[in-house]
Write a structure and sequence with these properties.
The complex is a heterodimer of chains A (287) and B (410). Chain A has 287 residues and is α+β, with helices and mostly antiparallel strands. In chain A, the strands form four sheets. Chain A has a three-stranded mixed beta sheet with strand order 8-1-9. Chain A is elongated and about 80 Å long. Chain B has one domain: Formate dehydrogenase/DMSO reductase domain (Formate dehydrogenase/DMSO reductase fold). Chain B has 14 helices and no strands. The longest helix of chain B is centred in the C-terminal third of the chain and has 35 residues. Chain B is globular. Chain B starts with a helix and ends with a helix.
Chain lengths: 287, 410
């Protein structure tokens, strides 16, 4: 059972690498590319409000085709029958469209909340819902800061409806239905890294066209669905009061304290029990 | 070995056991009581509503919206109900850990109450699950969402129910005259108590921690990173106030069960409990003030929600706290009971303010529970009281244990 030279070097290499870290491995071997988070960039200056993406989304997911049209000042919301929605806003810069769907957070609150891993952040980036695991508790809806997951209240076999970035298409190398259908190239699919770079390029190369910010670059710890707008985001219905750190971080402290409580409290109780026991000489016959 | 005489004897024995169970299932006492007249129609109606809910979806009988996915059934039945069940872990701590013999006579009924509360109010969760057939996923299988506070709470509910059942099991053994089982089960009590208290501190706070991620949705007067701590501290006096109220009712309703000695001792128990309530309420109020000042919450006070917050803090925390202090000094049990009722209202307000009223308080459409949600909630409460009464009338919970069982008492 001795360790021979080969095994010794293997162990040394593994230990060393785990100490140096994974990044060192990546740097020495750039060929082994990890799967990166993908996302969608929405450029509202290009959007014409044609609703092609809404129709394509409904067709791709067997949902009713939306019949209401985009009107300025009328706020339509995503629902259990509609996963994405385009709205029109009257702003100082004229009519501006804004499209909302699941943000596909880097650290999704819904997935951290889910006690069965039905809400799941895939390694490709989309946050998906898995019906065979979900028990319908709706804690994802309570937790999502963007209010994205919707529940089919009027079904005996209800589903959670939300944008899944057409995950089944993406794993086959395709693009989301909305991106494919967009005639104005307002939607752009790619790795999150590329999307952020592209968004910054557009902001820099077109001064005055955009506000100098990307919605989704840092909000809620960063999201996979990122948006560009010509006007401040709160003028087009986006929530600008959300924190920039991730939402699951809010429960981290509590969850981390659980193991220590499981050690401290029982020991303390047992100690007190033993201490109070001595005061009772009556219990002598007990062992 | 198997002589015919033996088998016949055994058969007879099992037949008599069977007859014992049948006779115990039959109701005792008069049928036409006020409680029965009110509760039976509500339970029947509630069962019909529950059938409709499973046939046609949660939306068919509730007013829940996409913005407010948790309503009365979670906010009241589960979050509030579990706080009221907190009396069990406090009393088991006092009796089995601190050995305060004075409270021995009420520990069984409190544990029974706690167990039934968990069974029914946490069981009410099943009604609220959209896909209840998957409820087994967080318990067995490969779908553990270990990063979820709800995962922790679900496991704790389950384990705590088991712990409380073990704590209560000697009473069941006494009812069945199972002497050997009684001996074994009694030895498990201390372990179950220690395990149960640990679980309780964690899931009482865990119910608050559920709302930590809902930061942008809860009114800032009720949201702080200290929700878990506030929940666990308030569960102490919530549970004990319930013990005070429930004990006072039991003294009247089940007076035939209670020995004269315990009857007399009850006032002194109430005074002791009101002292604990007074001091924990002081700690709770102090924490609330700290959170208020630390979070610079005074900017929200001059608004309807601000006045609502002040009403909760002054009317249903400060006032009952002062009443508890006063009653424990003067031994005035009437004031104790009044304080307990105010404290209970305060806890209901607090839990609902976090989970329902202050949740999406600025949403365009407000959630107001439908009458059907209220009927189902009442059905759950009444059914629990029916089971409670059934157990009290049969097992030695309020009355003294049979003499053979007393030797095993610690």
């Amino acid at each position: 059972m001795g360790i021979d030279r080969r095994d010794f070097f293997k162990t040394l290499a593994v230990t060393g690498l785990s100490v140096i870290g994974y990044e060192a491995l990546g740097a020495s071997n750039p060929q082994a590319s990890e799967t990166e988070f993908h996302g969608v960039l929405y450029d509202s200056t290009r959007c014409v409000g044609c609703q092609s993406c809404e129709v394509a989304c409904a067709e791709a997911h067997d949902l009713p085709i939306p019949t209401d049209i985009v009107e300025p000042g009328v706020i339509r919301k995503t629902s259990e029958k509609q996963r994405c929605v385009v709205n029109s806003y009257d702003t100082p810069k004229g009519e501006v469209f804004m499209r909302t769907a699941c943000m596909h957070c880097n650290e999704p609150a819904c997935a951290a909340a889910c006690l069965t891993q039905a809400m799941y952040k895939t390694k490709e980036g989309p946050v998906i819902w898995r019906g065979d695991k979900c028990m319908g508790c709706r804690y994802c809806m309570v937790s999502c800061p963007f209010g994205v997951p919707k529940f089919e209240y009027h079904s005996a076999n209800p589903k959670i409806q939300k944008c899944d970035m057409c995950y089944d298409r993406i794993v086959k190398g395709g693009k989301p239905a909305c991106v494919e259908s967009c005639p104005a190239e307002a939607l752009f699919f790619g790795t999150r890294r590329a999307l952020i770079a592209e968004a910054h390029r557009r902001i820099v190369e077109n001064p005055g066209t955009y506000v100098d910010s990307i919605y989704g670059e840092s909000v809620a710890g960063g999201t996979g669905y990122v948006s560009l707008s010509p006007v401040p985001f709160n003028q087009v219905g986006l929530n600008t009061k959300l924190q920039n750190s991730s939402y699951p971080a809010l429960t981290k402290g509590f969850l981390y304290s659980v193991p220590s409580i499981f050690v401290i409290v029982p020991s303390l109780l047992l100690g007190i029990h033993e201490a109070t026991k001595n005061k009772q000489p009556k219990d002598e016959d007990h062992d | 070995m198997t002589s015919p005489i033996y088998s016949i004897k055994k058969e007879k024995q099992s037949a008599s056991t069977w007859r014992f169970f049948i006779s115990e299932l039959k109701p005792k006492g008069p049928w036409l009581t006020w409680f029965n007249v009110i509760s039976i129609p509500i339970i029947v109606l509630g069962v019909v509503l529950i059938v409709i809910r499973f046939a046609r979806g949660i939306g068919s009988i509730t007013n829940l919206t996409q913005d407010v996915p948790w309503g009365l059934w979670i906010g009241f039945d589960v979050v509030t109900g579990v706080a009221f069940a907190g009396g069990a872990y406090i009393l088991t701590f006092m009796v089995y850990i601190l050995k305060l013999k004075k409270y021995q006579s009420i520990v069984r009924v409190t544990v029974l109450n706690g167990f039934l509360a968990y069974l029914f109010y946490a069981g009410a969760l099943l009604l609220d699950l959209g896909r209840p057939w998957n409820v087994i996923n967080p318990i067995i299988g490969n779908s553990f969402g270990t990063s979820s506070v709800l995962f922790l709470v679900a496991w704790h509910f389950l384990l705590y129910m088991l712990a409380e059942l073990i704590e209560f099991s000697p009473a069941i053994a006494e009812w069945l005259s199972a002497r050997r089982a009684h001996k074994i089960l009694s030895t498990l009590t201390l372990g179950a108590v220690i395990f149960g208290i640990t679980l309780s501190t964690l899931h009482q706070s865990g119910l608050g921690a559920l709302y930590l991620m809902a930061k942008p949705k809860i009114h800032p007067l009720w949201y702080s990173e200290f929700i878990p701590l506030l929940f666990v501290v308030s569960s102490v006096f919530a549970g004990l106030s319930m013990v005070i109220l429930e004990g006072s009712i039991s003294q009247k309703v089940f007076s035939d069960q209670i020995s004269p000695k315990n009857h007399k001792a009850h006032n002194s128990i109430l005074t002791g409990l009101s002292r604990i309530c007074a001091f924990t309420m002081f700690a709770y109020l102090f924490l609330q003030i700290l959170v208020f000042i630390h979070g610079k919450h005074w900017v929200y006070i001059n608004s309807p929600m601000g006045y609502w917050f002040l009403l909760e803090m002054i009317g249903f925390v400060l006032v009952p706290m002062l009443l508890f202090f006063y009653s424990s000094r003067t031994n005035n049990t009437l004031i104790t009971k009044l304080a307990a009722i105010l404290a209970i209202i305060g806890i209901i307000l607090n839990r609902l303010n976090v989970s329902v009223i202050g949740f999406q308080w600025d949403a365009a459409v407000h959630y107001v529970p439908s009458w059907m949600e209220i009927v189902v909630t009442l059905t759950i409460i009444f059914t629990e009281l029916w089971i409670f009464r059934w157990v009290i009338n049969r097992m030695p919970v309020l009355r003294e244990s049979p003499s053979w069982a007393k030797n095993h008492h610690e």
